[in-house]
Design goal:
This protein has 137 residues and is mainly α. The longest helix is centred in the first third of the chain and has 27 residues.
Amino acid sequence: MGAMTAKTGLSVLVMLLGWFQDGLAKLDHKDYQGAVLAFSTVISHPEAGPDLRRRALVFRAIAHLKKGERDKTMRDLAQVMGEVEEPEVRQRVFATLAKHGGDVKPFLPRETPKAAFERARKRGLAKDMPGFRKCLV
């Protein structure tokens, strides 16, 4: 029974990786709709692991970007960024998006750390506790 489960699990993984590779090939051949469908299949499959699912989301976002669907691109990338906290993974996502011509500015902080600190400091000195707390979130 355990060997059968392992074989089934392995065959599902091979199938998922095949869809992922198919999506990459379609992306290379400028079949962006086909790429979206292949990556969507990986993303929605219940056996897809979190790492494979995140990678498929990033490449589906790139396919949407190439199709001119900026809102769908941003939705997929926002989902990835919401799930990932590791700086090196976030950096790879930014690099992949930039490599394919995407704009990473919407995902960058709107103000510098120095400006954010100064804003919080001023609210603290003014004893604006509700405003100060909002600066910390």
